[in-house]
Amino acid sequence: MAAAASVAEYHSRDFDWDELREEVESDPCLAYHLTPSAPVSCSSSSSPSLSPCEADAWRSFHRRHSSGKFFKERRYLLEEFPELARCDGFAKVLEVGCGNGSTVLPILRAKQSMIIYACDCSPEVLERAKEIISSANGISSEERFHPFLLDFSVNNFPKWLFCSSCQNALVRNQSSSSEDAAEKLMTRDELDFRTNTQCCIGGVDFVTLIFTLSAVPLQNMPFVLAQCFSALKPGCLLLFRDYGLYDMTMLRFPVKQKVGDREYMRLDGTLSYFFSLDIVRDLFVSAGFIELELEYCCLDTGIRIELWT
């Protein structure tokens, strides 16, 4: 009964986003949010030199919040993205920007067959995530949670996720119409053999990008999405949720913290970008994704999107 009540209470349309937009855009006190402004950088040179400074800011942030109490477990995740709950059998998930594991925990709890690979730019927060997850009740994490250190805003994903040789061969095989067994390219069985011999893990079934992309400098977002695209098996899903345009968090920023169009810098040096649906669509489609669902979630004006490649 408790689980049923939890599901019944989940909702995402407390108000109409267009009404919020009209309210914000008609308020002269909020006019500075509507005007573009030139982005700042960490040094006198132009972007993308912003990223090292940004990564340092996030490392400091996670050190200050090392207790793990700042981020609550995202229990809504399986309701927002039911594909995770409906997935049958063995599946691999790549969590990009895992923080202290608030996104990882509900997935591990819900699906015993899920294996999660998770990256973050902070070694301290990765250690904290391992501690939190290993101490969580009902989760056997030793073989199911694999964190690794990576500043994904500027660095490629490791080749052991999905090497280009396996990826290209699998894509060619799926698009091949030849019935001649002698001319067939790599099959999934052959891919499994190669991955079992440590070539790579053969790509992932899901990439989760939850309140992470907004923390990346805007000019680095295409790179991040291209890396996410490269890690996914063909036909699999990227699940995205982040800050939406005119979110209350955005409206609370003073003008002095506005560093770009819809981009703000907190006092601790971390960035936050606020997405419109058009911007999300352009970014993801340009990276090669196909849009399945795109909408504002008007509980907290976060954007929800599901994409597949």
Automatic annotation (TrEMBL):
MF term (GO), any: S-adenosylmethionine-dependent methyltransferase activity
Protein name in UniProt: Methyltransferase-like protein
Gene3D superfamilies in the record: Vaccinia Virus protein VP39
Keywords, comma-separated and alphabetical: Methyltransferase, Transferase
Family membership noted in the UniProt record: Belongs to the methyltransferase superfamily. METL family.
Source species of the chain: Dioscorea zingiberensis
Family annotation (CDD domains): AdoMet_MTases
Stretches that traverse the bilayer: none
A GO BP annotation: methylation
Domain of life: Eukaryota
